From TrEMBL:
Native source species: Drosophila guanche (Fruit fly)
Membrane topology: Multi-pass membrane protein
GO biological process, one term: adenylate cyclase-activating G protein-coupled receptor signaling pathway
Keywords: ATP-binding, cAMP biosynthesis, Lyase, Magnesium, Membrane, Metal-binding, Nucleotide-binding, Transmembrane, Transmembrane helix
GO CC, alphabetical: plasma membrane
Subcellular location, record wording: Membrane
Listed transmembrane segments: 54-73, 79-102, 114-133, 145-162, 169-188, 200-220, 575-597, 603-619, 661-684, 704-722, 734-752
One GO molecular-function entry: metal ion binding
Pfam families hit by this protein: Guanylate_cyc
Protein name: adenylate cyclase
Cofactor(s) essential for the protein: Mg(2+)
Family: Belongs to the adenylyl cyclase class-4/guanylyl cyclase family.
Region (Disordered): 1073-1099
Catalysed reaction equations from the record: ATP = 3',5'-cyclic AMP + diphosphate
Amino acid sequence: MNSPWPSFNEDVGDSRSLGNVRVLEWKHLKERCRTLQMENCVWNYMRRWATATLAHFIIVIECLMFVHITLLLTLVKNVYFYELVPYLLVLILMPLVMMVCLKDNHKECYASNMIASWVMAFLLTIMDNFVSISHGGNVVLMPSYDHIVLAAIYLYLPVAFLDRGRPYILGLAVSVVYFCCSCWRLTANKAQLLPTLVCYALYLFYQNLVLALFFTLRVFGVRRLILNRHQLVYEKIVLKMVMKNEKALLESITPAEMDQTLQEDIRTRIEDERQGKKIPKLRKLFVEPHPAVSILVADMVNYTHLTNTLDARSLVEILHELFVNYDRATKRNDAQRIKFLGNAYICVCGIPMYNPDHACSCVDLALDMISITQQVREHWMLNIDLRVGVHSGEVFAGVIGHIKWQYDIWSKDVDITNRLEMWGEPGKVHISNHTLSLLNDEFLYEEGTDSARNDPVLQKAEIYTYLVSSRHPDFMEPCFGLDSNIRGVSLASYRTSYSNIYEEVAKKTKKNMENEVKHMPAGQFIYFCRAPKREGEEPNEDQLLNAHITYGLMKFHSARMECAYMKMPDLLMKYNLVIVLVAAVGVIAMNITVSVSTMFKELLAMLLVLVLICLIGGYKKLWLQFHVTTPMGQPSFCLNRWLIWMSELIEQQTLRVGMPLSIFVILLVFVIATTGVLVCSRAEFEIELIESDVADEEPQMMCFLPWVLTQSVIIVLSLLFFFEALALSFKMGLGLFILSCHLFIIHAHYGFAFERSETINMNLKAEFAHTWYLLAYFIVLSVKQRHSTYINKAIFFTRGRYEKTRKLTEDTTKSIKIIMLNMLPSHVADNFLEIRRNDQLFYENFKNVAVMFASIENYAADRAGIRVLHEFICYFDELLVNFGRKYKIEKIKVMGWTYMAACGLSAEHYTPVRKEESELSSRSNSVRVGSNESSEPSFLMDDDEFVLIMTDFAVHLLRIMNNIQVEDIFYELDLPKSLRGCLKIGIAHGPVKAGVVGHSKPHYYIWGSTVNMASRLTSTGLQGAIQVGESTAQVLRRNNIRCSYRGQSWLEGMSNYPTYVVDLDDTLEFQYNDERSSEQDSEEEQEERTLGGSTGSDC
């Protein structure tokens, strides 16, 4: 199911992603804005842009009117005052009419903005036609500002920036007025009436069409801007969220004080891997001493029966309730949960910060946990209880391992606490005399158990034990209030923390965007506001941008930044090429209408070149209408692939391809527009005009009509709007080049023709009229282009400023993924967050999993011993990389000096869910991953492979231990030879249950008789050997690996059970079966079974 909300690193306005959609890009972005509820932001920003644009428009028109009046006064003799009146009225009335549009209350001014736009458009239109009309048609005068009025409607007036403004209606209305006035003027005074009117109609039509297309593309650009800014705001919110999640995840592994150290180690490790540095022999150890703490070890009574009888869903729900509330009690009593070991819960009071009341807090926590367990027992009607041991002393605390880090504690006092828990009584807290001395007589206690008094470890440490049942009756206990319905509360808190998180982010993003739109650069300060900010005042985005760009051509001061801007892909390039083609067709139509000497073949050839360029530029878009382009679904025909590659090249390679191509096609249209000049015989044309003058006849203009040629150049200049690939300096340069060429034609090469054409004011020379017609339009274009460039550069500059935020978000998200993979198996980490988001508990059943425990022997729990343990665990973790094949080995946890791993915990090997179970689980807040399609899983044929891979991994562990001893890697620690380490390994296989329990500190664990058996096989095993159960030995023997019968071991819930040792030679290679050895092993096994021998630990 696709979310309407983007991921933090999904650039919704990215050129490559937009270039792969089938629909038109502006329709896609419009739908995207509606989905994200950003349409209001789009039009709010458009109204702000309109205010800035309108200010520019007022300045430009006022300047044009002033210059026009000045030209008439200086270039025209005996100018009549009434000819100046319309321009003076525009100077006076326009600011008054437009003032109403500069108000900030846009909602109430919608109607006034529309009215003001129409009034202003028709005011300019009437002004432009007043002089011609005032002469009663006796003199043919051309309009001065028809092109300016149309540009104003689509580019400047508020109607072009309002939702449902429909500027094309106003544009067509003004065009009709201009056309009717031209018909009235030319009817009695023009020999070539019909061709002239047709050309003028085509000119007005194409000006409307080209400018309307620009209006559409501008709205597309604004939507893209809003979506990009939405993405940036979204990223800032997500960054805060992911940093909070990262902190929470790190705190679920380590205390907050160690988070920064661990983060630095992650970054250092990533950087070392990037640079290819070798891993040092001795790795950094994150261990700190804590001299005064209290340790709590709690063990669930009847846990083995619970895990063997309950299904996975019920087991995970019960354990989740217990440990969520244990975690709450831990936090309430100012304790630090260390780890969860299936049936055991270990925490410490007094770390990471010293707590003078650590003993009282720890005993209070123990009593709370016993109360929680009793409530769960009553709610679920289970035969469970809690046995708790508490001891005060010192510990070493830190993180060990290379992957799946675990915060743990080590010391002799930890071993003593384990003994207290082992010999305690259910429902009571078994404490030491050290702890009792710190309790200040606040608790009721009695003598400890007889088993504890007889324990040799406790006797050697001179530990006396006591059982605490409660606080003194007169002690006023703080009313924390345990929940009456623990199950409901734990799941409610679960939902509160993780439900609707995306809806919350979406609401914050929308709210922030409404404020963000008010401060986005719209070009109000493009000409001013360059003064330094006041002391203590934060600079706005306009001020920040103005400090980085030049005032004139809007170039970045940094050449590197300017080059990066010019390399930005131009997604609209294919549409710009189509607009160029449309303009070329219009120019050709205008020239053919009035010219008899046009180069038809040359025009057709140039038109075909433009058609070919358009097809190549838009080929990918055409291909997407019928195909889906994916990395695996590229077209097979080489020509198709080449055309798609060329199409992408035109869009993406702006500097190398887009810019030269833009210049080429614009110049090509200019050549098409001036075809009449190129093919005309200047001498014949001049003679024809002289003869017309002598005969006092209307000149026939055998090559071209001057005003048609000028209007064609206007259309060419309009194309400069569309190409974002061209920098402002290039656009200005190209525009000036085209303008200069045409002015050369007007004043030099064909001056004799232009001086005989119509003018725009009485007694004003026609060539000056053409010049002013062109210059006025070029000025309007330049001002608009400068403003558009300012907006585009503001967008680019802002994205660059936010790039650091995006990178930090990506890095933090990667860090979260790393942390998740260090907390959970890979297949669980991929799905856990989504499951948790849907208020579900994660659990799963496996038909067959190989479980291994590897216990490191002969080390003391001092700092040197912990250093060695850390190195061993890191070596073991690195070995896991070589066992990431089809049946991946997952590290489950490290328990003191014991390493636990499993093989077969992957998505392909879930037990199918029966229909009844599926229906039951669908009504609960849990999830079971499986399939209903098959009653028999297909992986059962591969049971042997789980066992073989795990056994091979165990052999590699033994080889690592042997290599460490041979190479004396720990010589720096100066350890005695007797303390160089050895392993006892136990392996069992069979069905297991698995799941994630815990709220703020989620923990993945596996349960079942298979796990219990593997643990017992390790504790009763031999040093330097692998001990397996009977079923596992049968699998190994079936695969030609020799196993020797050792005897029978007592396992809880199974009584005596046959055990075997995997035979290895001196080089730690497998011993393989032959017929003689198999028969001998069989006879020895039968003899041992008959004698009823049992095994025990020889350590």
